[in-house]
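Contributing new records

If you add data, match the layout below exactly. Sequence lines come first and carry their own label; structure lines follow with theirs. Keep one chain per record. Anything else will be rejected by the validation script.
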Amino acid sequence: MPNLSTPPLSSAALPSATRVRVWDLPVRLFHWLLVATILVAFLSSEEDSALAPWHVPAGWIAAILIAFRIVWGFVGGEHARFADFLKPSQIAHHIGGLFSGKPERSIGHNALGGIAIIALLGTVGGIVYSGATMHGEAEGGLHETLANVLLGLIALHVIAVITMSLLTKDNLIGAFITGTKRADLHPGVGDARPPAPLALPVAAIAIAGSAYGATVIDPQPFTPGAHAEAGEGVGGSERGERGDD
């Protein structure tokens, strides 16, 4: 009689996933759009830059992205939520692992990474606020100071991501592109819970509301060069005042 039993499948042929879903699409889009927006904002910060007309629109787009991220931190996918990665009690343990050279892998943001996210969001928000309310040297100095702080935070963030990727052999940059991580590096971890059922409508309302708020503060927030044509600086009348000197 022929052997009708099914031979065991190799691990490569197993139907179980070799990747685990971590980051939802909206949070990944937010991340890379904010990266692009910040890059444009810095490249357009000088008046003689070819991108100078885009400085103010870039700032307002960043503000809308921050508004979205705050909302998504409560209704987004499992690892996009603030409750998932804001865990101060785990900071000491994480730092201990770093000093020992054997940091533990984290499926989402690790303890220090969570603090870094809040610092980055807060600093970008401060830059937008100072730019939108700039009316003199004091505010202009704050805007520039916060921009320099942001550069430092970004540098630390990039170094930390690369370092953790090398130490844990977990490609963190790739994860924020594909939204997945290797399942074998996170045994026993299942796919992240998806966003709440009404997450997208709530996020859309936040985006629309913040865009409308921008037009209340600035009649032409998304028109490149509108403020330069009016003789104004990034946040108001600074450029006009300089022209009168």
